[in-house]
Design a protein that fits this description.
This protein has 2 domains: 53 residues, Multidrug-efflux Transporter Regulator, Chain: A, Domain 2, CATH 1.10.1660; 160 residues, Mannitol-specific EII, Chain A (3-Layer(aba) Sandwich). 48% of the residues lie in helices and 18% in strands. The chain has 10 helices and 8 strands. It starts with a strand and ends with a helix.
Length: 239
């Protein structure tokens, strides 16, 4: 429900942060919020875009610390829980996309998502992805983009999943360093409570392993899948 309103405790839980973290962000005017008398409230429709953009900007120790927090809240760490095998299959990977523009990349990823059989309405997904990109590009340095819907509604997907596409030629996608992008992850979470955790996990895989270099050396979807599984195992060891 994009129109949901969180209180301080609820937004801390939703964002996988502590209450003290949120209070500090409010104090520094770094999080969208509203004052209603003595209360501070947070509108989900504003928080979603802000939170995902914040994670995409994290790097180094800040990313590691957030990933550790979100992992602790999302599942039992004693099980060294892996996400990739649950949401990705080799057939969800297209290593030879012919897309040549940002718009065509989004359309082709939506088609790939539709082929999973988990998207009841591809048009709704396309619209939400386009709205999210208008808020700010999901492209990052390193030639990657982590696309996701602007809002996460249970009806959008039959189950959570990830699709991965690589374009034959890198294209401009709005990376903050001005570089082109050729590797695209589309994250579709049925449960919005785990979306930010999945986003952080994939950021960790991209920034703290050699997966990107190795994935660009193969055009085999199964090989790329195995590289992602291996990279996640490496990341989990850091928890």
């Amino acid at each position: 429900m994009p129109y949901r309103v969180f209180n301080l405790d609820e937004v801390a839980s939703y964002l996988h942060l502590s209450k003290q973290d949120i209070q500090e962000l409010v104090k520094r005017d770094e999080i969208p919020c509203e004052r209603q008398g003595d209360r501070i409230v947070f509108r989900k429709k504003n928080i979603d875009g802000w939170a995902s953009q914040r994670i995409l900007r994290l790097n180094g120790n800040s990313l590691v610390a957030y990933h550790r927090k979100s992992s602790a809240k999302a599942h039992d760490l004693s099980k060294k829980h892996a996400i990739i095998p649950e949401i990705l299959k080799p057939e969800y990977i297209d290593p030879a996309m012919t897309s040549k523009t940002k718009a065509s990349v989004i359309r082709d990823l939506v088609k790939l998502a539709g082929d999973t059989g988990l998207v009841p309405n591809a048009r709704d997904l396309l619209k939400s992805l386009e709205e999210r990109e208008r808020l700010g590009s999901t492209a990052l340095a390193g030639g990657i983009a982590l696309l996701h819907p602007r809002n996460h509604e249970p009806y959008m997907f039959e189950d959570s999943f990830l699709v991965v596409g690589r374009t034959i030629q890198p294209i401009p996608f709005g990376s903050p360093d001005g570089s082109t992008t050729d590797l695209f992850f589309l994250i579709c979470c049925q449960d919005d409570r785990i979306h930010l955790h999945v986003l952080a996990r994939i950021c960790m895989i991209c920034h703290h392993t050699s997966m990107l270099v190795e994935a660009r050396d193969t055009t085999n979807p199964k090989a790329i899948y195995e590289l992602l599984v291996k990279a996640e195992e490496e990341v989990v060891q850091q928890l």
